[in-house]
Amino acid sequence: MMAAEQMPKKDWYSILGADPSANMSDLKENIKTHINDKQSTDVSAGTVEECVQKFIEIDQAWKILGNEETKREYDLQRCEDDLRNIGPVDAQVYLEEMSWNEDDHSFYLSCRCGGKYSVSKDEAEEVSLISCDTCSLIIELLHFN
């Protein structure tokens, strides 16, 4: 997993001018557009420096978003950061305390509002915050060591 300090300090999607729901082909197209927009033969030294910095940012964004695994990790971290901004954690729950749903291979826990917290088996190892599917409550997912 990528180090927390690498993600998501910058919004890599906005650097590429892309929507977070964009697929790989859309991301590639956005990169081409940004690079083609910046190409010119008659530019000042300051503009060249700006273009170089923009190219470096685009390259960094592609290194994260152009790889399915790092993109997934980045997206999970963005989601978790969004949840942290919504409000405080309502409870801390160990994964082992959650129920298993064999039908969709996920863990779930009922919320006091009647909704449920749900996390897939794959995501359970990587996320630490889960929001209720009905209200705004959030739980922190803990793991036994």
TrEMBL record:
Superkingdom assignment: Eukaryota
PROSITE patterns: DNAJ_2, DPH_MB
GO CC entries: cytoskeleton
Gene Ontology molecular function: any one: ATPase activator activity
Subcellular location: Cytoplasm, Cytoskeleton
Gene3D superfamilies: DnaJ domain, DPH Zinc finger
One protein family per Pfam: Zn_ribbon_CSL
Domain J: 11-78
Keywords, ordered alphabetically: Cytoplasm, Cytoskeleton, Electron transport, Iron, Metal-binding, Transport, Zinc
Residue ranges constituting the DPH-type MB domain according to the UniProt record: 89-144
Pathway(s) served: Protein modification; peptidyl-diphthamide biosynthesis
Subunit structure: Monomer and homooligomer. Iron binding promotes oligomerization.
Family: Belongs to the DPH4 family.
Protein known as: DnaJ homolog subfamily C member 24
Lineage, top ranks: Eukaryota, Metazoa, Chordata, Craniata, Vertebrata
Gene name as annotated: DNAJC24
